[in-house]
Each structure stands twice: as structure tokens, then as C-alpha cells.
Specification:
The structure is a single chain. Helices cover about 60% and strands about 10% of the residues. It has twelve helices and five strands. The strands form two sheets. A three-stranded mixed beta sheet has the order 3-5-4, with helices on both faces. A two-stranded antiparallel ribbon has the order 1-2. Bound molecules: zinc ion. The site of zinc ion has 6 residues, from helix 5 and helix 9.
């Protein structure tokens, strides 16, 4: 019976569950509806923001918001140029800075809900560095990496393709899968997606930051600072699933000429 259910889900996947990632054109598994995952993201996000605490540093908070809005506009422009604006229909963008000097992290949930933690700002160093991180995190959301991973998680744990169905069976496990899927499952900064997702977000993020008016040539230097910081503290699984810093930096350098075509000074 279970096998039958799973094979039905697999058939449904082949028929309906395929989406295409903007920029890279990769085909991805996407069973979870964007309405469902955006609703869950919105609810989880307001809980995170309520708990905060939000930074009281006005200058830094404004910088994160300023960069966020510029990247948002760039993404909207990019998607419009590809005739793909409909994919942003469910987005309700928000950008917040959380006061937390231990969590070197930033993320963008499905639907454009962004949080930066203050501990990542020294590694960003300045607005350019914030733009590198913002472009990368927003790219994860635009590429639907959260929905893709949520689909994989629900299929593996429940044999199901809807969040509501999984919630009905086990709300806390569903929530856990969601947190992992959107990159909140760890407080070790930005080490949270698979190799292919990280690489895709790097590539897309570079184009988005360039369109927003930030020099994409600054991205490798941000990752060099990140490499120095995380030198000794990578968990073992990180080694096999995450691009090495050298690979990431050399890939980024390879994409810079493409991104420069979008760069608006
Ligand atoms: Zn990432």
C-alpha cells in the first residue's frame, strides 16, 4: 500500500511537479504549492521577528533594508524581462536585522522574507558585502530551493506532497522540515544548502547584485573573508555536500564577466 502511494506520488511528480529555475534553467522537483509554502513562511517569519530582538542600530537596519529593496527591484526587473513576473505574485518582501552577535547567518524565506543577523555584518564589512549576501539569499528564494527541499522532505518523511497533509499528521516534524528547507536549521552561517543549490544561488546572486548597482567583482572577497572565519568550524557533513571555498571563489570569478553585462554603475 505504502509503495503504491509512493509510486502514485512519483507519477504525479513527473506529470506536474517540475519547475524551471530562472537564470540557470535547471529543472527541479516542486510538489509543494507556492501558496502553501508562502503562507507557512509568512507565519514562521512573523514569529521570528516578534521574538527578535530586532537591532536598534538605525544605520545598520537601514542599510540592510536599502540593499534589500535594491535587490528586490533588480529581481523584479529581471523576471519581467524574462516574462516571468507571475512567479513573484506571492512575494511580500520584508527585510529585518536581528540583534544576535553569535549567529553568523542570513536567509530569505519563500515569498521574500529576509532576515540578517548582526553577527554577519563584520564579515560583510560594508554595503557591498551586504549586497553579496542579500543577492545570494534572495536567489535561494527566487530559485525555489526551499520548496524543492520541502518537497523532497515531505516525500521522504510522509510520502505526501502537501504541507497541509503533513501538518495534519505531524505538525512539529513538518515545521522541522520547513526550517531545514529554508536554511534556518543551523546557526553556522550560510552552510545550509546542497552544493548545487549553493552554486546556483552564487551565480544568480551575482547577477542580481550587479543589476542593483553593486560591483559583482566584490563577491569573491566576501567569500574569502567567510573562508577565513569558518576555517576550523565546519561540521563533517559540510565537507562532502558543500562547495569548498576554493571552488566557490573560482566559480564566482568565472561568472563575473556575465554579471558585468548586467552591472549598472
Ligand atoms: Zn546559500
Amino acid at each position: 500500500m505504502i509503495r503504491k502511494v509512493i509510486s502514485l506520488v512519483v507519477v504525479a511528480t513527473i506529470l506536474h511537479g517540475c519547475a524551471t529555475v530562472p537564470v540557470t534553467g535547471r529543472k527541479q522537483l516542486s510538489l509543494v504549492s507556492s501558496d502553501e509554502i508562502n503562507a507557512m513562511a509568512s507565519q514562521q517569519y512573523s514569529e521570528v521577528i516578534k521574538k527578535g530582538p530586532l537591532s536598534t542600530n538605525v544605520e545598520q537596519t537601514e542599510m540592510v533594508r536599502r540593499v534589500g529593496v535594491k535587490i528586490q527591484k533588480a529581481v523584479e526587473q529581471y523576471m519581467a524581462s524574462k516574462g516571468s513576473s507571475a512567479q513573484l505574485a506571492g512575494f511580500k518582501w520584508e527585510f529585518n536585522l536581528i540583534q544576535d552577535d553569535k549567529t553568523v547567518n542570513a536567509w530569505c524565506m519563500p515569498g521574500g522574507k529576509v532576515a540578517f543577523y548582526t553577527a554577519i555584518l563584520p564579515i560583510c564589512k560594508d554595503e557591498l558585502g551586504v549586497a553579496v549576501v542579500m543577492g545570494h539569499e534572495v536567489a535561494h528564494a527566487i530559485a525555489n530551493h526551499g520548496a524543492e527541499r520541502m518537497s523532497q522532505g515531505l516525500l521522504a518523511e510522509f510520502g505526501l506532497s502537501t504541507i497541509s497533509g503533513a501538518m495534519g499528521q505531524n505538525p512539529s516534524l513538518t515545521q522541522q522540515i520547513f526550517m531545514q528547507a529554508v536554511g534556518m536549521g543551523t546557526n553556522v552561517g550560510m552552510l545550509k544548502f546542497s552544493r548545487s543549490h549553493e552554486s546556483e544561488a552564487d551565480h544568480m546572486g551575482l547577477i542580481f547584485m550587479a543589476m542593483a548597482g553593486y560591483d559583482p567583482a566584490s563577491a569573491p572577497t566576501f567569500w574569502e573573508r567567510m573562508a577565513t572565519l569558518s576555517g576550523g568550524q565546519q561540521p563533517p557533513e559540510f565537507m562532502s555536500t558543500h562547495p569548498s571555498h576554493e571552488t566557490r571563489i573560482s566559480d564566482l570569478k568565472g561568472w563575473i564577466p556575465e554579471a558585468m553585462q548586467y552591472y549598472k554603475k
